[in-house]
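Quick one, T. Sequence first:
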Amino acid sequence: MSERRTLYPPIEPYDTGMLDVGDGHQIYWERVGTPGAKPAVMLHGGPGAGCNEKHRRQWDPARYDVLLFDQRGCGRSTPFASLEHNTTWDLVADIERLREMCGHEKWQVFGGSWGSTLSLAYSETHPERVTEIIMRGIFLCEQSELDWLYKYGASELYPEEWERFVAHAAAHGDDLLQTYIRLLDDPDSAVRKAAASAWNRWEGVTVTLLPEEDTIDHMADGDNAVATARIETHYFQHKCWLESGQLLKGAEKLRGIPGVIVQGRHDCCTPPAAAWALKKAWPEVDLQIVPDASHLFTEPGITDGLVRATDRFADAPPR
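Structure tokens:
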């Protein structure tokens, strides 16, 4: 068995900026790699998590020109944690604005977790603008997936953490999602921060194969914690503005587009069933199930699959 690939060395952007996308929103963007090389766009997770420096390192900088950006309301985009004019379809429109800003005719679309949802929504809306799609941790925003995380499923694997998560909201109502939405909108900043910490800690537990307290603590109490929790609950309340089965039905528009899915076998956040359903709807995609991995792109098996995928397409001619 060949040695697993790792992330490329740390790299700084060669250009950064803010793009006015209307509705009062300014989107932070950055470009890394080689100007004029193969174009790609990275769609981060959450929704609301933002980009970080490790995200830049999943492509060969000599062969790619990669655009990364913080989606509406998160990271360095403004206004921070805003829910106004913040929907899946606003983000799809933003991606097109960014493509036009870069002057690319087409580009590679790359996303994980919520970023896979957005990758599919964008690619099914603008298939003529996509050269390849690389995804991990498939999330289709179906009710069954939300129920797995917030009603019954993951709760059976992490019962002690589930009790902790539920206990934070128990005194405020029976509907967990609606309760957290109310807490995250409380006028008391201490209440908002405590709710965001509890919400994000639960997610942090489900995305790690082995206990990673540093990762969980960062997700629960990092600078972006309130934005992530507010934006996630906002999107999930509205089912991400997607009809049931919409992304699977739309997969017929991806026929002819090369694709790779890197899916952790033990992904408790976005279980492999969604990736398998997408594979059946889009037979051409290369589904790689990593036997010793969960959800995060930094896990060795997931990193290996993603870096091999970007290398595989680095010299591919445009369709």
